[in-house]
UniProtKB/TrEMBL annotation:
This is OBG-type G domain-containing protein. It comes from Hemiselmis andersenii (Cryptophyte alga). One of its GO terms (cellular component) is cytoplasm. One of its GO terms (molecular function) is ATP hydrolysis activity. InterPro entries: P-loop_NTPase (IPR027417), TGS-like_dom_sf (IPR023192). Residues 1-10 have a biased composition (Basic and acidic residues). Residues 1-20 are annotated as: Disordered.
Length: 104
């Protein structure tokens, strides 16, 4: 998706007259930054983005910019005790993939 969007933005930027401050030129720069971020194996939500960049990201509706919700199936007994032999490993995995609350 990002490579196709970059090609489209490059074509649009070449066809528009108005200098480097045009919306198309800004989009080319932004999509290039997104592509480098994704190729680095990082989620979009983990990046440092300016307010203007966040507005453009919101228009793109990228899945990796959305927050995650981690749901776990536990037995009733494990839920009541708030313990399970897998919870520490699951918590470790969640923390290594962006973190968030883990509610057993």
């Amino acid at each position: 998706w990002a490579k196709a969007r970059l090609e489209h933005a490059n074509k649009a930027a070449r066809n528009v007259k108005g200098g480097s401050a045009s919306k198309e030129a800004i989009e080319v720069e932004m999509v290039t930054k997104i592509l480098k971020h994704l190729e680095g194996g990082k989620d979009i939500r983990a990046g440092d983005w300016s307010v203007a960049e966040v507005e453009l990201l919101n228009e793109m509706l990228l899945l990796t910019s959305k927050p995650y919700v981690w749901l776990l199936n536990l037995s009733e007994g494990d839920y009541v005790r708030k313990k399970n032999k897998w919870l520490p490993k699951i918590k470790e995995w969640v923390d290594s993939h962006g973190g968030g609350a883990l509610i057993p």
